[in-house]
Amino acid sequence: MELTDTARRFIVHWGEMGSNWGVNRSVSQIHALLYFHGRPLHAEEISETLSIARSNVSTSLKELLNWNLVRTTHVLGDRRDYFETSLDVWELFRTIVRERKEREFDPTVRLLKELQAQPGFEQEPADAQDRVRETLRFMETLGLWSDEMLRLSPTTLEKVLKLGASVQRFVRGDS
Prior knowledge:
Helix 5 runs antiparallel to helix 6.
């Protein structure tokens, strides 16, 4: 498949942004291709289109599957696996937030709880205990808020985000 200039720029940029977010560039570019293209593609097609080694495509697709950002599908009469992603940007956003929360945020909350519960915690300096407790309180509050936001429909979530921006402008006194 030949990429248009628009598609190429989108995919390259998404790969650069993925690197900034700590995601492998190839993983991000494959996701961008599937999203931009809007239809299932097989691994060979992805490899040829992006000029990425087939083994790299395979590894990247496994990572995208683990993140629940792509799913495997099949085409009648073709034995190959095809891969597709959601075309709903809100669904993708929610998936990424949910996955990152489970992988990065929740383990930190568990650790902070464990630290507080361990026998020697009371022997730590009072100000250190306070920082651990405050960090846990903050993270639990943020976790509850994010869980609630993830329960909202995309339409409602968009309204909440716009409302939050309006409240910020009002508080600042912007016209």
